[in-house]
Amino acid sequence: MQKTEGIHHISAMVNDPQRNIDFYAGVLGLRLVKKTINFDRPEVYHLYFGNEMGQPGTVITCFPWPKQLKGRIGTGQVGVTSYIIPKGSIQFWKKRLQKFNIEFISSVRFGESYLKFNDPDGLQLELIERDEGPMNNWNFGGIQAENAIKGFGGAVLLSAQPHKTTDMLENILGLECIGQEDEFLRFKSEGQLGNTIDITLNPSVRGLMGAGTVHHIAWRAKNDEDHSRWRMLLKDKGYHPTEILDRNYFKALYFHEEGGILFEIATDPPGFSFDEPVAELGKKLMLPSWLESKREELEETLPPVEVRVLEGDK
Q1: What's the rounded Cα separation, in Å, for the pair 32 and 73?
Q2: Coil, strand or helix: which one is 69?
Q3: In what helix (H) or strand (E) does residue 47 lie, and over which residues does it extend?
Q4: DSSP labels for 201-259?
Q5: Domain presence at residue 263
Q6: In angstroms, how far apart are the furthest CA atoms of the chain?
Q7: Backbone region of residue 282 per phi and psi (left: phi > 0; alpha: psi in -120 to 50; beta: other values)
Q8: What is d(CA 171, CA 176) in angstroms, rounded to the nearest whole number?
Q9: What is the CATH number of the domain that holds 262?
Q10: Residue 203: per-residue pLDDT
């Protein structure tokens, strides 16, 4: 059976680009690995934050658009995005969130302790200590490698039809159901990062797309050949995947699963060093070849942004 390793990336809608960078790079210490534009709406940034190399399973991508209306988290969406932190670092992160006046609560799910909080746009995030996954060697601001976020722990899916989404995860994507606790079903993939997916069995209010919501969740394909097999499988199973689209840093296809959540399948290669050296990732506005002729116009339209060490870390 064909199986995905787990989450490739998660893409979210937000408002202010500088505030977005200050939070994910400044507060959480993720690396801005790519500063580009939304290929479908070039007047909007597309910002990618991940580990040192922006490896699959570590990257949250954001579409910051100030005019965008506030969304509502609900069915048909990813409800919560979880990140893995190294064992023994939870106290560091509690102090760090307090330092930046970010409210958090502690919760327990499947015997694991989570630290739950929101980003400035209202996206729901959580931190979980696990041994799984390689250390992230990116040091920034007040965060050193021993405390740095490794990548995704997983996500909580809010499906309008949980049994249909369950079937998709198990029988098409190849995840294994490993337990039920209260209103949650838990699934696991074979990857080290982004491998734990919880489904809420009691659907909440219907989600509304907008700032503060996840636009889609992407699953990993090993390479172009694997990607093509995924597309054929989806068509055979009665889904309607898009054509394969070139996103420069990966190939992508999209489809809605029956619980209403927009899924993507994305290739691991070529990665974010495809068009700039590893040492320079995220520093320059990178454009696809077909928009390079409009660079000057786009750079005048897009607001200036920078990765900066926040006042609390100076």
Answers
A1: 25
A2: coil
A3: strand 41-50
A4: SS--SBPB-SBTEEEEEEEEESSHHHHHHHHHHHHHTT--PPPPEE-SSEEEEEEE-TT
A5: yes
A6: 56
A7: left
A8: 9
A9: 3.10.180.10
A10: 84
**Which residues, 6+ apart, have CB-to-CB distance to 153 below 8 Å?**
82, 83, 84, 126, 128, 130, 193, 194, 196
- Check residue 55 and give its pLDDT: 98
Residue in 39, 71, 64 with CA at minimum distance from that of residue 49: 64
pLDDT confidence of residue 233:
98
**Rounded-to-integer distance, Cα 36 and Cα 285, Å:** 5
Residue 169 near residue 55 (C-beta atoms within 8 A): no
Residue 28: inside a domain, yes or no? Answer: yes
Residue with tokens 């394909």: 221
What is the predicted pLDDT for the residue at 1?
85
Structural domains of the chain, count: 1
CB of 126 within 8 A of CB of 116?
A: yes
Question: Is 1 part of a structural domain of the chain?
Answer: no
Q: What per-residue confidence (pLDDT) applies to 148?
A: 98
CA distance 212 to 37: 19
Q: Which position has the token pair 């979880």?
A: 82
Provide the domain limits for residue 243: 7-313
- Here the tokens at position 37 are 């534009």
Name the DSSP letter for residue 68.
Answer: P
Residue 270: is the preceding peptide bond cis (ω within 30°)? yes
Q: How far is CA 22 from CA 25, 203, 237, 300, 312, in A?
A: 6, 33, 42, 22, 12
Backbone phi, psi, residue 247, to 5°: -100, 20
Give the pLDDT means over successive 10-residue stretches in the chain (314 positions): 96 98 98 95 96 98 96 98 98 98 97 97 98 96 96 98 97 98 97 98 94 98 98 97 97 98 98 96 95 95 96 94
Q: Is 2 part of any domain?
A: no
